[in-house]
């Protein structure tokens, strides 16, 4: 399945909260990743980020692999099992990263 735009944006917020303890607006996220605002907007609208460097920096700032970023961004299929696992990993805030969360693509 592919995520809806609403699911994508919800997951982006949850990833920000996991890593930084707060949500960012699009401009703040772009500044944090040192990428153009348009690239953040593309992720939020589920469009491909054309610059690989921007995608890598955004993935790094969100604490995920670029592969998981593509799934979160609705560009690639994510299985129901992966989505449930991601939900479980994002609920476990403050705990050390579990191996299954690392395998999924969290960093």
Structural class: mainly alpha
- Helix run count: 7
CATH class: Mainly Alpha
| Proportion of strand residues | under 5%
| Total number of strands | 0
CATH arch. level architecture: Orthogonal Bundle
Largest sheet report = none
Shape: globular
The fold-level CATH name is: 434 Repressor (Amino-terminal Domain)
Q: Supply Rg.
A: 13 Å
* Helix content percent band: 55-70%
In short:
The protein has 107 residues and is mainly α. The chain is built from seven helices and no strands. 64% of the residues lie in helices and 0% in strands.
Describe the structure.
It is a single chain. This protein has 7 helices and no strands. The protein has 107 residues and is an all-alpha fold. Helix 2 crosses helix 3 (37-44) and helix 2 packs across helix 4 (52-62). The longest helix is centred in the N-terminal third of the chain and has 16 residues, at 5-20. It starts with a helix and ends with a helix.
Chart the SSEs and their pairings.
Blueprint: H1 5-20, H2 26-33, H3 37-44, H4 52-62, H5 66-72, H6 80-91, H7 99-104
Question: Any key phrases for this structure?
Answer:
107 residues; mainly alpha; 434 Repressor (Amino-terminal Domain); 7 helices
């Amino acid at each position: 399945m592919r995520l809806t735009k609403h699911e994508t944006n919800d997951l982006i917020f949850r990833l920000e909260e996991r890593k930084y303890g707060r949500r960012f607006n699009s401009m703040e996220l772009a500044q944090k990743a040192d990428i153009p605002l348009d690239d953040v907007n593309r992720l939020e609208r589920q469009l491909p980020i054309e610059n690989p460097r921007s995608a890598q920096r955004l993935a790094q700032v969100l604490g995920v692999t670029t592969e998981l970023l593509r799934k979160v961004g609705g560009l690639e299929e994510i299985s129901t099992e992966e989505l449930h696992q991601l939900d479980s990993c994002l609920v476990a805030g403050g705990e050390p990263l579990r191996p299954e969360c690392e395998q999924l693509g969290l960093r």
